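Support request, please re-run this one:
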Amino acid sequence: MTNHMLSLFHLDGEWKDITSDRHDVTMLKFFGEGDVELTSSDYSVSIVDLSFTYLFNDGINCKKVKLGDDEVWKHTDDDKFAEIKSFSLGLCSKSFLVKNQPGKSVSQSQ
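Re-run finished. Output below.
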């Protein structure tokens, strides 16, 4: 994360900037049907429970998530998560989390 949209600090005697130790959220890309890249109007972004969360709008079907050139999730990874409602990046854990419509979730570390 080097675009100055979010900075993370850790207190261990003194404050330490740990932003560069985390995934750069600006490198996340979301893809729908036919590998068409979703736009920022297809989702909202918020920080929830120490996670940077992308909540997809109703009717938007995210099929794949990439971090730079690396594929971090795709709809064929797990039948129960062929459609997801949100994608989160743990700010402390550096793990990815996907949630489907009923609210079930599965975590994938990176």
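The two ends are 15 Å apart (CA to CA). The beta strands are 9-12, 14-17, 28-31, 43-48, 51-56, 64-67, 70-74, 84-90, 95-100, 105-109.
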